[in-house]
Amino acid sequence: MRIAHVLRRISFDDWGGTEQVVWNIAKAQKAAGHEVRLFATTALCKGAADEIVDGMEIFRFKPVYPWWPMPKALVKELDCKGGNPFVPGLAKAIAGWKPDIVHCHAMARIAELCLRVSRRLPAKSVVSLHGGGANVPEEEAKSLKAPTRGRLPWGKAVDYAMGWVRRVPEDFDGIVCVGEDEYEAYGSSHGHVMFLPNGVDARLFAGACRERSANGALRILCVARIDRQKNQMMLVEALTRHPDATLRLVGPVTQADYDAELRRRAEELGVADRVSFAGALQPGSPELLDKYRNADVFVLPSRHEPFGIVVLEAWAAGLPVVASDVGGLGRLCAAHPGAAELFAPGDAAALDAAIERLRKRVEANPAAMSAAALAAAGEYDWPVLAARLVDFYGKL
């Protein structure tokens, strides 16, 4: 089977959850004997546009963001998150390869492009819903549009002239849902919908099994892009109530103003010396594994989350998890209560209580929590998930 995976960006210097899912699924499909190529924009790509990484061909095309004016600073901001670009040349490249499956991992104009290409070939069209669109808070949805507010949206005129009508995801032959909320939203109205959770390479993280802090201090780790969705501010403020705790934030900055707010707030509260920003680290890199190894608890306080792949990484490293009870993240942790504690989203007192419950459980039997974490991670193996996806393709 010839499979084209299309995503908004893939940069090995600025890695996100969607990229990690697509990369691992694609590698597993290729290892199973399928022909696989990745197609993306050049957003955040610092090296050659087209390249071959670990035997995987990646083709990139320059995005055109349809607003005016468009200063360089805004281009960079939209490269990090959003932008809804036109991507000249992408459709021609996909069509020229003649895939059997066009699997889109983006929305809006890129999704429309994938639909049109698949119909011309013809090929089966599949879209993955990665972003938790079913439960994005209204306030955050507005913040995503803030960078382009007040600018001329010339792209709408082009859309109208080209007759683009985005019925996404409804018009795709198949819908893959990372979150159960999306699965419930579309499962009854579309003939081909599947729930496919994220995965983890448990063998990769096995060497990162944690070493408990010798002095009893609490080393908190959060691996997530620096973004209001991930709500790291809650952890910075929690340090004032946990004087023995330190916080390490790992992840690329997708909202620069929020990064500045976090640093400023840490200074205001007098906890800046207990917060470190590690930036973006490549998946599976020695540096990232070291961060998991030198932590006592993984905390993800997201405002909304369709799944939470970093939770699987933490479990694969034997690390217990505290997470907000939202969307697929809450369901994931609830399914493995031996390895996690949940708290009500945005509730500082509930976060403190969850951390204390976990502390007591670890002190009572640290081996039990690590064993539960490793067992939970073992249920989400990439080759198994990739095989399920190929089987789904065959039924379209």
Q: What would you say this structure looks like, in words?
A:
- The strands form 2 sheets. The protein has an 8-stranded mixed beta sheet. Strands 11-10-9-12-13-14 form a 6-stranded parallel beta sheet, with helices on both faces.
- The mean pLDDT is about 90.
- Helix 10 links the parallel strand 10 (about 245-250) and strand 11.
- The protein has 2 domains: about 1-200 and about 380-395, Rossmann fold (3-Layer(aba) Sandwich), CATH 3.40.50; about 200-375, Glycogen Phosphorylase B (Rossmann fold, 3-Layer(aba) Sandwich).
- Helix 3 runs parallel beside helix 4, helix 12 crosses helix 15 and helix 14 crosses helix 15.
- It starts with a strand and ends with a helix.
- It has helices at about 15-30, 70-80, 90-95, 110-120, 140-145, 155-160, 180-185, 200-205, 235-240, 255-270, 285-295, 310-315, 325-335, 350-365, 365-375, 380-395; strands at about 1-10, 35-40, 50-55, 55-60, 100-105, 125-130, 175, 195, 220-225, 245-250, 275-280, 295-300, 320-325, 340-345.
- It has 16 helices and 14 strands.
- Helices cover about 40% and strands about 20% of the residues.
- The radius of gyration is 21 Å and the shape is globular.
- The protein is α/β, with parallel strands linked by helices and about 400 residues long.
